[in-house]
């Protein structure tokens, strides 16, 4: 019910890790995520450490949710010489194809401790409901 993802995204992510290629706007790097259902909502968590909330773009068009973010090198003066640089830089992106049973009008997003958490409620029409059956208390007799 939640989503489908691009099956080649994981291969792209592994390739960029091995070869150290930073993502670009035309070819972004994938970001790791977890997704689970909690009651009447789906929760999706993206790992985006070292960013500020304003460096993250979140868009929904029809049933496609797109998350984009960019991590740039730290700004330093002319006298700054980088000693170790292991955190990946560049553009990160992930698209999720949300199912029709989700309420894309009421997505809630929080960014804390390097994790972007999205809460996507299940649409009312997709929730299970009990249907009452009307009937008479007296059984009908045949031939009456």
UniProtKB/TrEMBL annotation:
Pfam families in UniProt: HSP20 (PF00011)
Protein origin, superkingdom: Bacteria
Alphabetical list of InterPro entries matching this protein: A-crystallin/Hsp20_dom, HSP20-like_chaperone, Small_HSP
Coiled coil: none
Domain SHSP: 24-136
Recorded family membership: Belongs to the small heat shock protein (HSP20) family.
Protein name listed in UniProt: Hsp20/alpha crystallin family protein
């Amino acid at each position: 019910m939640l989503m489908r993802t691009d099956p080649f995204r994981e291969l792209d992510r592994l390739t960029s890790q091995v070869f150290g290629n930073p993502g670009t706007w035309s070819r972004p790097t994938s970001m790791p995520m977890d997704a689970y259902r909690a009651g009447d909502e789906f929760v999706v968590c993206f790992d985006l450490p070292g960013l500020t909330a304003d460096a993250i773009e979140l868009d929904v068009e029809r049933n496609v949710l797109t998350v984009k973010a960019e991590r740039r090198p730290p700004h330093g003066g002319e006298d700054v010489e980088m000693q170790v640089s292991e955190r990946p830089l560049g553009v990160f992106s992930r698209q999720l194809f949300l199912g029709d049973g989700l309420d894309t009008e009421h997505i809630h997003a929080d960014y804390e401790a390097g994790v972007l958490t999205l809460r996507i409620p299940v649409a009312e029409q997709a929730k299970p409901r009990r249907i009452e059956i009307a009937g008479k208390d007296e059984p009908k007799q045949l031939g009456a």
